[in-house]
Design a protein that fits this description.
By secondary structure, the chain is an alpha+beta fold. It has a single domain, classed as Alpha-Beta Plaits (2-Layer Sandwich), CATH 3.30.70. Helix content is 34%, strand content 28%. A hairpin with a 2-residue loop joins β2 and β3. 13% of the residues are buried.
């Protein structure tokens, strides 16, 4: 199992929309995440910053991320959620899933 953290800004004018969408995430999107070895996916909000955490329990993270990105229901979901987000900081986004940036794990309590 590997742990992953990501960060992105939430556009203040789209906050209500983003929260409404995530109050009822589409079951197809959740099923795709589960099918591709994502567990314990959590998104936290502080002010206008979203912080995501998930665990990957598969053997090939890149292949699973590619499969998620290729899923039609997930791609449609992203057309709704991506406009609510803005890149965080000056670095490049992680690639799949819009403007989210990957965080580096520096410590973990077992």
């Amino acid at each position: 199992m590997t742990r992953h953290g990501q960060i992105v800004n939430l556009r203040p004018e789209r906050r209500a929309e983003y929260l409404r969408l995530h109050a009822a995430v589409r079951p197809q999107v959740e099923a795709t995440l589960t099918r591709n070895n994502i567990r314990n996916y959590t998104i936290f909000l502080i002010e206008d910053t979203l912080i995501a955490y998930y665990e990957h329990v598969g053997e090939d993270h890149d292949a699973d991320m590619a499969a998620i990105a290729a899923d039609p229901a997930t791609r449609e979901w992203w057309t709704l959620t991506d406009p609510c987000q803005a890149p965080w900081g000056a670095g490049p986004p992680s690639g799949a899933g819009g403007p989210w940036r990957d965080a580096t794990e520096v410590w973990h309590l077992d």
